[in-house]
Design brief:
The complex is a heterodimer.
Chain A: E1 11-16, E2 21-27, H1 34-37, H2 47-65, E3 70-82, E4 91-101, E5 105-114, E6 117-130, H3 137-146, H4 149-161
Antiparallel strand pairs in A: 1-2, 2-4, 3-6, 4-5, 5-6
Chain B: H1 3-16, H2 37-51, H3 57-65, H4 72-75, H5 77-91
Helix pairs in contact in B: 1-2, 1-5
Chain lengths: 162, 92
């Protein structure tokens, strides 16, 4: 994770097209300028960045499901609960599952766990835009490569065929 | 009033914090009820879930933008409920 660059995702552990879900692993950095303010003497991962992490996991999940035809943009944090403090150097398991695919929007349910314990969860709503309308596909494909999304897709498809 | 209208009115009242009494079949969701695009997506999500359908919002918007349909065809509540009933019938 590079919090100040909004790089919230490190590695896609698995994706399931049938279940419409994804699991992503990310490690909170030991040091970040963010922690200088949040909070002095007590560095904590900000709740808004946990929400952003869940949103990004949902985003790459839905882009993969749509074969990179559309990009979801966070539109509504319907619910969000921060249940535990998240500290520097902790490993996050970010889970996202598509709850509903509407016309022009998508809804996901997400959670983040640390050492198997749920630290936060949310329901998020996204408006979807065709990549014909937004100039972000190149950046998204770089992100997908960085987090090994294609490897996870290939692993899922190989498993589905066998 | 139809069962569909009553349910949709309940959804709108709850989602947009509008007094149920002010919502009528002739209400325009935008002009009369002041529902913006974000609230409208919440309403469509609730309608999709309630009736087990997928309201084709993108198609409707395209038809309005192309001049093939009038906004009132979809955004006056009694017309919206008629479209929902058509989608439910098609599903069955």
């Amino acid at each position: 994770m590079l919090l100040e660059y909004f790089q919230m995702l490190d590695h896609v552990k698995s994706i399931d097209f049938a279940d419409q879900s994804i699991v992503v692993e990310s490690v909170v950095p030991e040091k970040s300028p963010i922690f200088e303010g949040h909070f002095p003497g007590m560095p904590l991962m900000p709740g808004v960045l946990l929400i952003e992490s869940m949103a990004q996991a949902s985003g790459i999940l839905y882009m993969a499901l749509s074969e990179f035809k559309v990009m979801p943009f966070l539109m509504s944090v319907d619910t969000a609960k921060m249940r535990q403090f998240v500290n520097p150097s902790e490993t996050l398991q970010i889970n996202s599952k598509i709850e509903h695919q509407g016309s022009g929007f998508v809804v996901s349910k997400c959670s983040i766990s640390v050492d198997g314990k749920r630290v936060c969860n949310s329901q998020l709503k996204f408006a979807t835009r065709s990549f014909d309308e937004v100039p972000t596909l190149e950046h998204i494909m770089e992100l997908a490569e960085r987090v090994s999304l294609q490897d996870a897709i290939d692993t899922y498809k190989a498993g589905a065929q066998s | 009033m139809s069962e569909t209208f009553n349910k949709v009115a309940e959804i709108i009242a709850e989602t947009s914090e509008i007094d149920l009494e002010t919502i009528t079949p002739d209400s325009n969701t935008v002009d009369d009820l002041g529902i913006d695009s974000l609230d409208f997506l919440d309403i469509v999500f609730a309608i999709d879930k309630e009736f087990g359908i997928k309201v084709p919002l993108e198609q409707w918007t395209q038809e309005i933008n192309d001049g093939k349909a009038d906004a009132d065809d979809y955004f006056i509540l009694k017309n919206l409920c008629g479209k929902i009933d058509e989608l439910r019938a098609a599903k069955d």
